[in-house]
Each structure stands twice: as C-alpha cells, then as structure tokens.
Write a structure and sequence with these properties.
The protein is α+β, with helices and mostly antiparallel strands and about 150 residues long. The protein has one domain: Gcn5-related N-acetyltransferase (GNAT) (Aminopeptidase), CATH 3.40.630.30. The chain contains 4 helices and 7 strands, in the order βααβββαβαββ. Strands 1-2-3-4-5-7-6 form a 7-stranded mixed β-sheet, with helices on both faces. α3 links the parallel β4 and β5.
Amino acid sequence: MSRTWSIREAERRDVPELLAIEVAQFPEPWTRAMLLDEITDTETRRYTVAVEGKRIIGYLGVMYVLDELHVNTIGTLPGHEGKGVATSLMDDAWRVAKERGIVRATLEVAVTNTRAQALYFRFGFSPVGVRKNYYERTKEDALVLWADFDVTS
C-alpha cells in the first residue's frame, strides 16, 4: 500500500480539524486553547499533521524536555486507522528527535488502548509503571511507557 499523505508541521489554521479528531477519538479531548498553546510553543513542542489532499487525517504532538521526548497526543481521523498514518507520524518524530540529540522517550496510554500500545511497542516502548485513575473522566489507568533511542545509528 503506497502512502497517500504528506507530513508537515501543524499550524494555527489546523486547530479546527485537530479538535474534530480529538472529539472523535478521545473521551477527554483537548480544548481549542490547549491545542493553540501547544502548536504555538515551537521551542519545546513539535506538532505535525498528516495531510491527504486538503484534509488532515492524523496528527502527533511531542514535547522536548532536556534530552527526552514526551509524546503528548496522537490521533487519526476515523476511517484512516490501520493505514500507517500514526506510524509515519512517529517515524518523522523519531527522525527529528535523533537530530536533536534525544536519547529516550516516554508517554502514557490508556490500559485498554491496545491498538496504540501495539504502535508504541513497535517503536521500542516498554511499560515501566501504571498511573492509577490517570484519565479524569473515565477513571481509567494509564500505562507509563519508556523507550531508549539507539544513539549509535
């Protein structure tokens, strides 16, 4: 299957489409203000979007803290799951993180979100703990995952 989308950095004008994906995918979607704050903080954050035609079909937001990367959020437009959109966004984030000298990455993921966990495991993440009742609305626990970058490659 050939890739039909391109990846670019997110812009303020993308927020309505990102909000739509957030609402469709998550029980606790981010707000417009949260997304705007994240996208405009280009010093410590990097938000990218996967664009097919003129439509955003996925996005990824990461935060840099010293030599670490934290995956803040990732989402795919309903109907585009399982096509490699999230994988291509993660590939792009990994490439840039290595260029920045990042040596490890972390994130939290709902314990029931096995599809996302499978993606993260492919990128070398491993569970190191659980945050009880991490998600406020659902009271669901989150797995804490860490990955080390191969700094020799």
